[in-house]
Amino acid sequence: MRVLIKQAELMTMNREEAIFRGDLLIENDRIAKIGTELDERADKVIDGTGKTVIPGFIHTHIHLCQTLFRGQADDMELLDWLKKRVLPLEAAHDAESIYYSAMLGIGELIQSGTTSIVDMETVHHTDAAFQAMAESGIRVLSGKVMMDYGDDTPPLLREKTEVSIQQSVDLLEKWHGHDGGRIQYAFCPRFVVSCTEDLLTRVRDLAEQYDVRVHIHASENRGEIELVERERGMRNVLYLDHIGLASPRLILAHCVWLNEEERRVIKERGVKVSHCPGSNLKLASGIADVPALLDKGTAVSLGADGAACNNNLDMFNEMRLAAIIQKPACGPTAMRAREVFRMATIGGAEAMGLDQEVGSLEPGKKADLAILDLNDFHTYPSSEVDPISRMVYSATRADVETTIINGKIVMENRIMKTMDKKTVLQESNRSIQRLLKRVSKGAECTGSM
User: Fold this and answer.
1) Strands 30-35 and 19-27: what pairing?
2) Which of 4, 379, 438, 441 would you label with 394, given CA atoms 20 to 30 Å apart?
3) Neighbours of 418 (CB within 10 A)
4) Cis omega before residue 155 (within 30°)?
5) Is the pTM of the predicted complex or chain greater than 0.85?
6) How many CB atoms lie under 10 A from the CB of residue 355?
């Protein structure tokens, strides 16, 4: 299959961050050629006149299992949000509700131009989430959450260490590398508060053995840090470093409350940080000092977190927030648009270890991209305007017209191609009604992988 996009504005995010009007040829799953005027045969030609093509967005912290919980846990701080609402709802999940929660989230992500995600599921039924990922066409790094410790962990989510490890390895061996590597596995201990040291050190060893990423929350909330200090004797990042988990394969979500020593460890160990401004603001967790991390040369990317704590999974929203929330404290030049757009694209690819494959528009890379129509009131005038500034500060997800992942058109002219939108919406409503009834009755659900 050869797809030719003609005469579009191409925002490449290559090493030179070149932006020009030209053509882009897709052959099978990769970008074959980029040029000002390609004379190539194609099975499908897309007229890009007046349109903008960008590398697909890459969210590096998502919880697809929580998409059904949108609007169910508003106006709460993190630990109460978890204990009183989110963990009981996760415990109530069944395989069907996990599947439709994932589909609902993926549909929203694809509609807003996202092509890759780093996802963290719940304890049970993760196979159903991977099935949704396989069918939808999204590029994903995901794994079941691991929780074997904590008095506040619901009994249905608190695992035996051996079971948690075995189920994770089984899922890895089934799904890692699926569809030519479009789906990859990561070990996902939830956070230090809910994991024994035995589990965390075994995850460290298994991640090295299988050469996969580890995805964990860290230093999101002051109460969380106090718990870790009380139980482990040191702060989050220092503890993770102490047990040997801090390495280039580690992705830390949030990192709102870091001290200077922790920032040094993150930089020296090559740890990746996922900044989630929308979630951090809504849960009143705080504002991560991203400029301080970037000043040290730390790799920082962006994520929306889950719909239960953000209420949308829109990268346009995260980019705008990431740019503007730093300016009152750090000055108007802090977090420039170009820096933020990089975090949302090639920066996310670096966090996933896929920067040689995705994150920019370059020949030989995977064909993961979005086509936008920016011809509207909110994006004009278009003359004499920095295109990246226009993308970060003015564009919205409604401007995304077509999304292509792995060379496959998964949305065209706002019409989803890999899922039935009406069915997903209907089944999402049915699923959350079922889960809320289970939670209200306090009924125990049987958990299985």
Assistant:
1) antiparallel
2) 4
3) 18
4) no
5) yes
6) 18
For residue 131, the tally of other CB atoms under 10 A from its CB is 16
Strands 139-143 and 114-120: parallel
Q: Which fold has domain 2-55+362-416?
A: Urease, subunit C; domain 1 (2.30.40)
235, 226 contact by CB (below 8 A) = no
What's the pLDDT tens digit per position in 366-393? 999 999 999 999 999 999 999 999 999 9
Backbone angles phi, psi at 303, to 5 degrees: -150, 155
Q: Which amino acid belongs to residue 413?
A: N
Q: Is 241 among the annotated ligand-binding positions?
A: no
- Helix, strand or coil for residue 80? helix
- 254 labelled as ligand-binding? no
275 is in an annotated binding site: no
Please indicate if the annotation marks 59 as binding a ligand: no
Mean of the pLDDT values across residues 73-89? 93
- CATH for 57-352 is 3.20.20.140
Residue 138 burial by CB count (10 A; 0-12/13-18/19+): exposed, middle or buried?
buried
CA separation for the pair 23, 150 (Å, rounded): 55
pLDDT of residue 230: 96
Query: What does the alpha-carbon distance between residue 446 and residue 94 come to, in Å, rounded to a whole number?
Result: 8
Q: Is 378 annotated as a binding residue?
A: no
Find the angle CA(78)-CA(79)-CA(85) to the nearest 5 degrees: 85
* Domain chopping of the chain, boundaries: 2-55+362-416, 57-352
The two three-digit tokens of residue 447, written as one number: 């958990």
* Distance, CA of 126 to CA of 160 (rounded, Å): 17
